[in-house]
Request: fold
Amino acid sequence: MPTALRVSDAASLGLHAAALLAANSGRRITAAQMAGEMGASQAHLSKVLQRMKGAGLVDSGRGPTGGFCLAQPPSNVTLLDVYCAVEGNLTLSSCLLPRPMCDGESCILGNVMGTVNQELRNRLEHTTLAQLADVFRPQAKEHRAPDQSNSAKKGVTP
Reply:
């Protein structure tokens, strides 16, 4: 469905993966588990997670207990941090075109683009992952390590 505001697939994957990791704080989740939950390509998500790792937002581990987790407390990471890790700096523009056609004094859309871009930046800058963790919290239970869920089913406390 067409929308006026466009966010790349990579940025969207990064933002959603970060919220999912925040909901599962303290646990590692594999790229395959995240991709399955988000209905996304595991290969694309893995590339996005590697960008986030390079920016110091996530840690990863290999092996049977491997996967991804946040490298910082969710309250210390904003959506702008995630966006910039995936896409680079968010540049604000007041024009839809790559090269503005208006003289800057008058635009066919008025200042609507400048206002929308600034509001988006403010929202990303002032929203932390901790604030979004509840979006995925119900699913967080499904990401327990297999030995923990088996123990829980048997009534054994790990």
In short: Confidence is low (pLDDT under 50) at residues 143-158. The chain has one domain: 9-140.
